[in-house]
Amino acid sequence: MTSRVALTGGIASGKSAVSQLLAERGAVIIDSDVLARDVVEPGTRGLAAITERFGPMVLAPDGSLDRAKLGRLVFRDDQARADLNAIVHPAIRARAAELQLAAPADAVVVQVIPLLVETGQADDFDTVVVVDVDEKTQVRRLMRRNGLSPADARARLRAQASREERLEIADVVIDNAGTPEQLVPQVDALWTRLTSSAPLGGVTSHTTRSSDQKT
Ligand code: ADP
């Protein structure tokens, strides 16, 4: 059985940066954001269910999903957003499970799940890795990456689980308040931990969580 690793962190905390370093070391990366697009491609059951719920006006002329239109529909409508999540989230999980099963038996499979805490999936994994950054740095990076105002960036943070809630479920914490170079030794230590574990039975249990693995 492959080792199941979840990588999470707040928006713009550095999940992509860390998953890139893990991929370079040989991890099989399953990215929820990529799957979220895959499961609503034309011809999928996901897109059929969305069209049934929201009507054909959420489709672009070429039959693909018009994400901007759907986004506007669900933005201020909690029920619509819940309905959309009820379609998309199970489809993402099913696809992730398929990919996990398809990975070689000795692979370290890392699922990048931004909303791990919010969707209550931590217990599904042998190891939960949290990319951690202070909120000031997070807001600054988010503003720069997405071209957002400070108020909009802070609103995005508020819509997510808190830093404390994520740290609570962490087996391993990667501190990304420093430079990208400072991620390297931390990811190396994580990689050693993930690859030196027994192939059966997982690498750690959630009852033996270490709260911090900063180097
Ligand atoms: P996430 O995938 O968690 O949303 P990213 O890995 O995309 O976050 O990082 C968010 C932004 O911050 C990106 O623009 C990235 O280039 C930048 N970034 C990530 N880590 C660092 C770092 N240690 N120092 C400076 N900028 C960083």
What is the ordering of alpha helices and beta strands? EHEHHHHEEHHHEH
Computed Rg? 18 Å
Low-confidence stretches: 199-215
Strand order of the largest sheet: 2-3-1-4-5
Q: CATH topology of the largest domain, which one?
A: Rossmann fold
How many structural domains are formed by the residues?
2
Q: Report the average pLDDT across residues.
A: 91
Please identify the top-level CATH class of the largest domain: Alpha Beta
The global form is globular
Question: Termini distance?
Answer: 29 Å
The small-molecule ligands in this entry are:
adenosine-5'-diphosphate
Description:
The protein is built from 9 helices and 5 strands. It is α/β, with parallel strands linked by helices. The chain is 47% helix and 12% strand. The longest helix has 25 residues. Strands 2-3-1-4-5 form a 5-stranded parallel sheet, sandwiched between helices. The C terminus is likely disordered. The chain has 2 domains: 136 residues, Rossmann fold (3-Layer(aba) Sandwich); 72 residues. The structure holds adenosine-5'-diphosphate. Adenosine-5'-diphosphate (ADP) binds next to helix 1 and helix 6. The site of adenosine-5'-diphosphate has 14 residues, from helix 1 and helix 6.
List the helices and strands and how they pair.
Blueprint: E1 3-9, H1 15-24, E2 28-31, H2 32-38, H3 45-54, H4 67-75, H5 78-102, E3 108-112, E4 127-132, H6 135-146, H7 150-158, H8 163-168, E5 172-175, H9 183-195
